[in-house]
Amino acid sequence: MYKFPDLAFCLGEYRLQEARFGLLVHLKRHFPDLRNRKVLVFFDGKKELLSDCYSEEWEGFSIHYSHEKKADELIIGYLNFCEVPSQCLVVTSDKEILSFARRLRAKRKSSEEFYAEWVKRETEVDETEFNHLKEGLTPSSESDYWERQFLP
Asked: What is the pLDDT of residue 136?
């Protein structure tokens, strides 16, 4: 979450729930079609201070909370029990997890690489949306504008 400036700001302000939700929203934009894939998200700690929720589903995402453990342990545990680790993509900045995923032949991406890819994709989406808006506009001169303002 620290790679996304808006989420890092939330974390700096001790707004963990908002940062977690923000990450899920960013991931939803990155993976809009989840029909043929499963995305698991692992968070350190509990969902909320007094929560006993260990796992939940949200918008097609499988969310897991580590409680007293570290999320790293859950990720490693998942990879250990995964039938075909080579079909998994692990996104993390943790070198130990990346090394473990490499040994299992899982695909790996650092958080920095994922964020750079996310920014590139968001920029392309924004440009496409802007170009669609631009296509609907017809060029006009300033005199056309004023004529429309004052003439019936």
From this structure: 59
